[in-house]
């Protein structure tokens, strides 16, 4: 395993870490037994960082992490998120009282005394502009309930705004071959600020595995079905904001990246890790096989400057015009 600094937090995190949305819910059928085996394999291979949220399976993902990491609290770092269990547009949802309640509930499910990284879960930009939410987080930090805090953002504008607050130590962003825009300004600014970068949706909800065709369908309880066009939450969270059929077509044009890199999934995450401002990628998983395949990214060769330029030109010309949900 290779590790990188998570900004100025003092934490070193595994380059390939994991998100737990898929084992919590909203990605079709999953089995707890498979999820726990996947977590165990990841830790055995040196993964020391996991991302979750209080709404993943209504707290179920946090409970699975508690079971898998019992007795390893000092070695395994956990990031969780809050705010989407309430009305994200209501300012009271971000009051010191309410955030403290969210935090206590997550601590109870995680069976921990403190949360390593506590993140606001994609709040409206008006909440970030107001800034009082950060005062509440400073208070939780002073109380020892959280060690560090950050923000999971939908857009570059939101990320840049967060960096204006000195207490923000990490940003979680959508960044992949279908969402390349953060590399231009947000990543360099985060590095200058000393903020870590967690990359979610590195495979664009599976599009960048190359396994989907235009006729692929998804289960009713899979967000790739019920949020394909942003029906439930920001459309950027599903297929990186691309219409599915368009994304499946564009993914075929990227098949060349797998040459010498095992498969498209590993090649796609290698491209992300080739950006030094990135602290880690946090792909999802449902079982041991997916964990093992994602970890093989570490053995994949980096891209040449010519390849990077080719991929950038492809994004600007063929992908960017189709993105929905902001960038």
Automatic annotation (TrEMBL):
Domain of life from the UniProt record: Bacteria
One Gene Ontology term of the molecular function aspect: oxidoreductase activity
Signal peptide (UniProt feature, chain positions): none
Matches recorded under Pfam families: Aldo_ket_red
Protein name: Aldo/keto reductase
Residues of the NADP-dependent oxidoreductase domain: 16-314
């Amino acid at each position: 395993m290779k590790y990188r600094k998570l900004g100025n937090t003092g934490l070193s995190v595994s380059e390939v870490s994991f998100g737990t949305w898929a084992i919590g819910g909203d990605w079709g059928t999953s089995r707890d037994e498979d999820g726990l085996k996947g977590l165990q394999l990841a830790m055995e291979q040196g993964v020391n960082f996991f991302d979750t949220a209080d709404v993943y399976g209504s707290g179920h993902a946090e409970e699975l992490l508690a079971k898998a990491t019992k007795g390893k609290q000092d070695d395994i770092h956990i990031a969780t998120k809050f705010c989407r269990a309430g009305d994200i547009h209501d300012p009271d949802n971000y009051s010191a009282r309410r955030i403290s309640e969210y935090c206590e509930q997550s601590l109870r499910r995680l069976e921990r005394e403190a949360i390593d990284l506590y993140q606001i879960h994609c709040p409206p930009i008006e909440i970030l502009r107001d800034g009082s939410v950060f005062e509440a987080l400073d208070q939780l930090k002073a109380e020892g309930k959280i060690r560090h805090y950050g923000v999971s953002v939908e857009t570059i504008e939101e990320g840049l705004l967060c960096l204006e607050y000195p207490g923000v130590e990490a940003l979680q962003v959508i960044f992949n071959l279908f969402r390349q825009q953060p590399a231009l300004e947000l990543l360099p600014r985060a590095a200058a600020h000393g903020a870590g970068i967690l990359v979610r949706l590195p495979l664009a909800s599976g599009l960048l595995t190359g396994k989907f065709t235009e006729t692929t369908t998804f289960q009713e309880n899979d967000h790739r079905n019920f949020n394909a066009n942003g029906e439930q939450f920001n459309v950027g969270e599903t297929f990186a904001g691309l219409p599915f059929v368009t994304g499946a077509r564009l993914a075929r044009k990227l098949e060349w990246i797998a040459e010498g890199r095992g498969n498209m999934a590993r090649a796609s995450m290698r491209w992300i890790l080739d950006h030094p401002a990135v602290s880690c990628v946090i792909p999802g998983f449902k079982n041991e096989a997916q964990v093992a395949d994602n970890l093989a990214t570490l053995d994949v060769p980096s891209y040449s400057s010519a390849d990077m330029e080719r991929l950038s030109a492809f994004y600007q010309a063929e992908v960017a015009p189709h993105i929905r949900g902001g960038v």
